[in-house]
Write a structure and sequence with these properties.
Blueprint lengths: L13 E4 L2 E4 H13 L7 E5 L4 H12 L3 E5 L4 H12 L3 E4 L2 E4 L11 E6 L9 E5 H14 L7 E4 L6 H13 L2 E4 L7 H9 L4 E4 L1 H10 L11 E4 L6 H14 L3 E5 L9 E3 L1 H6 L7 E2 L4 E4 L5 E7 L7 E2 L14 E9 L5 E6 L3 E4 L2 E4 H11 L4 E5 L4 E6 L6 H8 L6 E6 L17
Parallel strand pairs: 1-10, 3-4, 3-5, 4-7, 9-10, 11-12, 12-13, 24-25
Antiparallel strand pairs: 1-2, 5-6, 7-8, 8-18, 13-14, 14-15, 16-17, 17-19, 19-20, 21-22, 23-24
Amino acid sequence: MSRFWELGKASNSLIVDGERTLNYSQLDTEVQSALSNLPKKKQLIAIVAHNSLPFVIHYLAALRGGHTVLLLDKSKGKEQHQVMLTQFHANYLIDGDLVSHLNPDTVPLAPEIALLLGTSGTTGREKVVKLTFENLTSNCAAITQVLPISKTDCAMASLPFSYSFGLSILHSHLLVGAGIILGQESLMSKSFWQQFTQHNVNSFYGVPFSFEMLFRLGLQRQPLHQLKYMAQAGGRLSGQLWEALKEFCGAQKLPFYAMYGQTEATARMAIMQPDDFLAAPAGVIGKALPFCKLYIASGEKEGELCFEGANIFAGYASSLEDLRECEVSAILKTGDVAHQLDNGMLQIIGRIKRIAKLEGRRINLDDLERQLNQQFNLSCVITSDDKQLRVFICGSELGVEKQIAQIAQCHHRNVKVFNIETIPRLSNGKVNYNALI
């Protein structure tokens, strides 16, 4: 199976980072040079995940050398980075072009482990996902089979590389030999769209929050006529956003690929083809990637969604000892609750951990959020401690406890409403529920 870090596809496409541009041959030379400065024995190499050429070069060099990469989220800052460096006894730290040798001792690493990625919203002692070289190659190959990426394409790589979806965009385009525009800019910035136009970017990848921002900017006003397709992952699209995208993409005859995945499955597990997307209700996840399976564990119409495939992770790690071995599992229990439609398609309806139990009644917090946002035209998020629903609303919609309680079918004393200026989000665009606890 082809390995994206070998840059095996002959290509004239470019990797662009501001004023600096490399073709694939030049990138390969730079990667080999960086590799020559690393030890031959397997090491734990921590790299700060900037969306930049120095990151790409050192990241590919570390994988090419068979090392284990610990990715550090650049948004977390040096203090949190130091916690992880100490926790896992990293041998090297690479930040931009700066390479620091931290630990001369041998770190016991399972030879199969290629990458350590943080999980969304972890606090305190960090827990990372262990991904193997096979995980990376199998998921990357499957993605390039279901998305129409070619070496003449060009994508903006603006989603964080510390996030599995953002990283998978880099992987899949490197495997094919496509053009990649690296950048830190928000799509709300003028420079993002200047680069988008200048480099003839012909695909748009985003998380639900990205598409919310696109609609705020005005889809019709953006240079989207040059797009070959759009693709989304990183969480469920709201019903309103789903329908708006169906309407826009249908009218523009612009293919839209809705994808479903988790870090524990190396990024992606399922994809919905554009024709299916235009006909499906919100939350439907399409079909499993090639050579993978998705099904409801109980065999019933509704229950926890399970996944099988070569991209299932090798367990979690929260200490040095956890890096000694891989805990391979044939089945990944996703933690998502799915419902099987009459046509056989699967629809995500919530998270198992996002189920509250008030006065003996189960309440799906994700579903309640969607109902409130749609019915009252709100922007709200909900948490619960199984004693009370805590509803955080952007704006001044207070005094609505009784209406919310009626929808949730609980007593209004179990509902507490808070006014917030903005919904807190993680670097990957998902709601940061931990910040609301």
